[in-house]
Request: fold
Amino acid sequence: MRLMAPVLLRLSNACIRLGSQGIGPISLEIVAGERIAILGPSGAGKSTLLRLMSGEQVVKSGDVALHGSSLAKLDGASLSQRIAVLPQSYPNIFDLPVRLVIELGRLNRANPWGLDEIIRQSAKLACAEHLLNRTTGRLSGGELARVHLARVFAQFWDVREGLLLVDEPLAAFDPRLQRDIFQQLSMFSESRGHALVAVLHDVQLALDGFDRLLMIRKGELFADCSASIDAVPNLENLFRVKFLVHQNDDVLFLRTNNASDFS
Reply:
């Protein structure tokens, strides 16, 4: 996070209801350049919070504002210039050319560097360049995830200080791809000043790769803290588990303590 960075997104007592369940009220700010991990038990409302931030879920009360303007007042074209979303799953009903899927990220955009070059470079960043001449119907889950990540890269290729929202972005990848793609995602965001907000289940990745943790429990913001050793007590309370902590220089390692019950 940079000093004096502009506020990109502000949630002000934002609440939504989904049947008998709800999220909020939640109040927080996200500034340009931040890297934020959203953590919480399964079913806590992490993905719902991400959809609230993107405008996919409309608030019942309170407000969500992007650059000072309520999301409810912005049209789809305006939102796509400032928010990019990588969902947890991707409908794959139609057998579409991979190039076309990536090109969809460039809707309503000028292409000063040439569309083909943006598509190629975006695919390269997502480790998907070798898939460009294929169609989606014959891709594995991990390959399809890389194609949609390339679409997001293409969407934000020439955007600065946008909001990049990703839901379990590495879940479909093997350990080496997880490392490589997370490095590309982080460098892409940092080089353009994007705020990167990710729903994660991997606590270690959240501590290693992010600046700030938003902890969600039962639809409420349980904690908002830095990704540091100081977050461990909150993490133990959030997941109801004790962690063994190992710190080597600036690197923090956690593993669950099987010999100790949480109390």
User: Anything to note?
Assistant: The CA atoms of residues 158 and 192 lie 8 Å apart.
